[in-house]
Amino acid sequence: MVKYIRKLQPEDEALFRNMNTGIEDDYVANIFSHLTTGNHRLFGLFLGPDLASVGGYSLFANRFAMLGRVRSHQSYKGKNLSTELMNFVLYEAFHNPSIQWVGANTQENNTPARRVLEKLGLRPRIALYNALAEHVYSLATHKENNWQPVLGVSKKIALLDKYYIKPAGIIPYECYYPLPASLDLITVDQLHNWDFYENKAATRFLILKEDQKKHQYLHIVYPWKDFMNQPGFWETVNPAYERLKAETNADTYIWLDLTKEETASLPNSHPFYLRSPWVLYEIERNMWEKGRGELEEFV
Known about the structure:
By secondary structure, the chain is of the alpha+beta class. It has two domains: about 5-125 and about 280-299, Gcn5-related N-acetyltransferase (GNAT) (Aminopeptidase), CATH 3.40.630.30; about 130-280, Aminopeptidase (3-Layer(aba) Sandwich), CATH 3.40.630. The protein contains ten helices and 14 strands. The strands form two sheets. It has a twelve-stranded mixed beta sheet. The chain has a two-stranded antiparallel ribbon with strand order 8-9.
């Protein structure tokens, strides 16, 4: 049986829909055309006429790539096809000389996916809970402590630079997509659309931005761990969330990325739904090239 890998195109959607992955209502099928064009790449490993495994990556600022959308045909599981395919995908990503970093975000309890990533040489960077809530009015207990909007792109850039970029931190760039903080990621249009708020003492700030995956989200970005102890924090979030719900007229949630340590600070009656945390794996170009060289020397 002939085995080969090729880049998938929008017209391959029927092949993917006929692939028995065991996943019901798979979002990949629903946006297949989107995931095979623009800044997205999707590859397929074929055994004869059968699409046996799928995986790809998304580009950010033509410098960062996030692996994902790994699917396997139920009939071919246990044959290490996902590892073979994603090794190819990783090579394809770094074949672009502009890409300096490749990551992948997978749930902590997804042992098979984590095993694949570790075989590829990626290492865990941070684990984050996607804390979702349908309301936070129970946390908004202060009356007149709303934070003030930050106006002007230059001030927003200065805050990002000081608290995310210079510390070489991870920024929750989109829902499901934490990335290394870099001004290369963030456009002027995004800075205009992202709402920044600062407390009265100008010692804390937060970002509120709209995001859409399967649902609509108000995505909170906050670089400190004291969100439960800052007067005005939730009083600022709550009205912004209510406005977004009214505008979208659809299923809309608050999204806040939390470390395990930060979840411990939530009150017992908190409104958040916490699933298994997502682990961000990563590898930088220099480490990938070093690993390839060691492997070639060994072979």
